[in-house]
Amino acid sequence: MGGAPRTLFRSRAAERTAHWCNALSLPVLELLPALRAALNLHPLVILQAPPGAGKSTGLPLELLSEPWLSGQRLLLLQPRRVAARAVAARLAATLGEKVGETVGLRVRFETLVSARTRLEVVTEGILTRRLQHDPELKGVGLILFDEFHERSLNADLALSLVREVQGALRDDLRVLIMSATLDPSLPARLGTHIPILESLGRSYPVDVRYLAADPADPASAVAGAVTRALASDEGDILAFLPGVAEIRRNMAALRERHPEVSVLPLYGDLPIAEQNRAIVPDPARRKVVLATSIAETSLTLDGVRVVIDSGLTRTQQFDPGSGLSKMVTSRVTRDSADQRAGRAGRTAPGVAYRLWSERTQPLLAAARLPEILSADLAPLLLEVAGWGADVTALPWLDAPPPPRVATAQSLLTELSALQGGRITPQGRELLDLPTHPRLAHLLSQGASLGLGPLAADLAAVLEERDPLPRSAGSDVARRVWALRQHRSGGRGEGDRAILERIERLSRQWRSLLRVRPDDTSPDPEQVGQLLHLAYPERAAQLRPGTLDRYLLAGGQGARLPEGDDLAGQPYVVAAHLDAGSGEGRIYLAAPLSEAVLSAQAVTSDVVEWDSRTGTLTAARERRFGRLLLGTQPLQQVPEALRVSAVRSAVLREGLGSLSWTNEARQWQARVLSLRAWRAGEEWPDVSDAALLERLDDWLTPHLGTVRRREDLGKIQLLSALHPLLPWPLPRQLDELAPTQLSVPSGHSIKLEYRPDGDAPILAVKLQELFGLADTPTVNAGRAPVLLHLLSPARRPVQITQDLRSFWQSGYFEVRKDLRGQYPKHPWPDDPWTAQATRATKKRM
């Protein structure tokens, strides 16, 4: 009995859907037979269709009648809450119903579903949360990833998890990826034999117009462009701006110039009622909608015939090096510009004004970067850990960059959400709170500390836009007090519309935490204590001699606005912080009690080498991160710490900090020469770079007595280096690379070896070689030395490696010059047979 009425209802709903879709002749429906066949045979299908083809509003209802979906639900994923609400409302209206009947909606803090619901429109993050609690996705037969070209972080994560579910748990689960523009490499990265269907759509022609030259400030040029379009073009106008501030400025200007026109904003933080006003046509007046990039996809604004594109977008860029994010305004990509222009041709021919020159167009980047390559990965990593997977093992389209993964893991470990890379019970609690892990930690631990009402208010303040003007300074407690005054009906400061949004969010958090509101004036240090739970690495210590410059626990520098109320506080914790270039700018912060930091401080003995004085310093320090909370001299210094400090100093300052004798440097050059000459043998690398890498093998054992730079000079480096040559290499070193050679005069002359393997130099007086025919050699006769033949005054007169040729020719030229300069020295006519000597001629 219970099943028959529902079957009858679905049949009637399908009939109404088919009638409506046929009436509109949605282009994508031409692919319906091929799509049905593909989904019947394949678990994963790709559909490419341009905006307006009916992907979101036509296909989902048609697919509900598929036999393989009988008794199961269809999930339609949307990248944004605004789009999800609009699509759900459009689909429900198609059936003549309200959202929550056949068509349901799930977004954060809003669920409209019933036992009758067959199609759920959900945001991408909702799906990942659902997977954590129900990995099999019981009762779900088809998932539609809409607007997948946006490549949001949650979309990539959801697709990765769903593909794991398909492979391990649900071979009957089907996935349809829908995109307005298709990355050519996408099918190959998803796997082989994936059907790809393409709809050409039915977009009306759009006349794209450019400026003659790029304006200095495109956002400021929007109001003028709207005025010109109102005079020359028909239909409603949709203008794209980078952010809320630019929307408000242009809205004020246009409302003053054109009171006859309805000028409305559209951005994600707007209350639902105001979003609907922007989306729904105004039957009485012409409409101008000023929107962020939220209006690029999914949403259909009926009546829009003109698009004005500032060419700007604003996104958060995460810096893994600092662990901070900053808002960056940049040029749109070409695919985004095309999406925006396409809004003008949804229902009739239109016009798109691009506020840049046509020669700039090809210089724009082709497509936006997938969010997984540039975003803060802490939420993703917590989800993956909750899933029980290794982030490197999931089937990603683009693997998360390792440096960003490491930064996220470090943060989650500091928040006690991960331990050894695995999720903790605390991490499980954070997963259940639908917000960033930082704020989830603030809410969870705040409630445990008995500060639940303040945690709810504070988290809501941090998630929403600032209700106070920039001139109000950085004090977060002031924002919480403004919220509480607003809630109690008082006449406090702040934007009332923003405060009302903050209160709605705080109400949701209070409900989850099961606490009642608190409207008393907040304790600033309790605000700081809670902020510290969310941003431990942003605890900051006032730099000596300043009132507004701080050192963060993570090691970065940051600065309060000039004249800020928090200036001079010994410790603060920053909530909103721009990484900046070098020194960041603190936008929101609270004072922090030193006791909070002391409770988490780590005490350690620190022994360091002072390069300026050349001495060791030793102290017992209490630190939180890079913040020094206290120090006292260390009387007894463990030898291991002392040796480690000196070793680090040598690594930092280089081997030049040691006292090298000529013998030690010659030993190094001899070994390196043999290493170059006898490449097949095991002569070690004893270059300076290699010696620094192997300090523990030769120098560290000799550092135990070093306390100052003078002690370094006392180390006998030659003795320290000897262990680097294992037996029998020391003996071979003396045989193959002797330190000196005997010459015919009977003297032994020192050789000068060179570390690059060039011939060693034998600097010897010319007369000491009389009678020697061939150039002396080393390396068992394989390496002739380089002879520097010296005058009696020990000045070089000839450099050669061919002594025989010198005696035959060069000698006589040299003899001619030297005989006059040094008449008391022998200069024989026949050097081959003359007696080698150092002395002058004997007196007669």
TrEMBL record:
<feature type="region of interest" description="Disordered">
    <location>
        <begin position="825"/>
        <end position="844"/>
    </location>
</feature>
<dbReference type="GO" id="GO:0003676">
    <property type="term" value="F:nucleic acid binding"/>
</dbReference>
<dbReference type="Pfam" id="PF08482">
    <property type="entry name" value="HrpB_C"/>
</dbReference>
<keyword id="KW-0378">Hydrolase</keyword>
<dbReference type="InterPro" id="IPR011545">
    <property type="entry name" value="DEAD/DEAH_box_helicase_dom"/>
</dbReference>
<keyword id="KW-0347">Helicase</keyword>
<dbReference type="GO" id="GO:0005524">
    <property type="term" value="F:ATP binding"/>
</dbReference>
<dbReference type="InterPro" id="IPR010225">
    <property type="entry name" value="HrpB"/>
</dbReference>
<feature type="domain" description="Helicase ATP-binding">
    <location>
        <begin position="36"/>
        <end position="200"/>
    </location>
</feature>
<dbReference type="GO" id="GO:0016787">
    <property type="term" value="F:hydrolase activity"/>
</dbReference>
<dbReference type="GO" id="GO:0004386">
    <property type="term" value="F:helicase activity"/>
</dbReference>
<dbReference type="InterPro" id="IPR001650">
    <property type="entry name" value="Helicase_C-like"/>
</dbReference>
<dbReference type="InterPro" id="IPR014001">
    <property type="entry name" value="Helicase_ATP-bd"/>
</dbReference>
<dbReference type="Pfam" id="PF24473">
    <property type="entry name" value="CON_HrpB"/>
</dbReference>
<dbReference type="InterPro" id="IPR049614">
    <property type="entry name" value="HrpB_DEXH"/>
</dbReference>
<dbReference type="InterPro" id="IPR056329">
    <property type="entry name" value="CON_HrpB"/>
</dbReference>
<dbReference type="Pfam" id="PF00271">
    <property type="entry name" value="Helicase_C"/>
</dbReference>
<dbReference type="InterPro" id="IPR013689">
    <property type="entry name" value="RNA_helicase_ATP-dep_HrpB_C"/>
</dbReference>
<keyword id="KW-0067">ATP-binding</keyword>
<feature type="domain" description="Helicase C-terminal">
    <location>
        <begin position="225"/>
        <end position="388"/>
    </location>
</feature>
<keyword id="KW-0547">Nucleotide-binding</keyword>
<dbReference type="Pfam" id="PF00270">
    <property type="entry name" value="DEAD"/>
</dbReference>
<dbReference type="InterPro" id="IPR027417">
    <property type="entry name" value="P-loop_NTPase"/>
</dbReference>
<dbReference type="InterPro" id="IPR007502">
    <property type="entry name" value="Helicase-assoc_dom"/>
</dbReference>
<protein>
    <submittedName>
        <fullName>ATP-dependent helicase HrpB</fullName>
    </submittedName>
</protein>
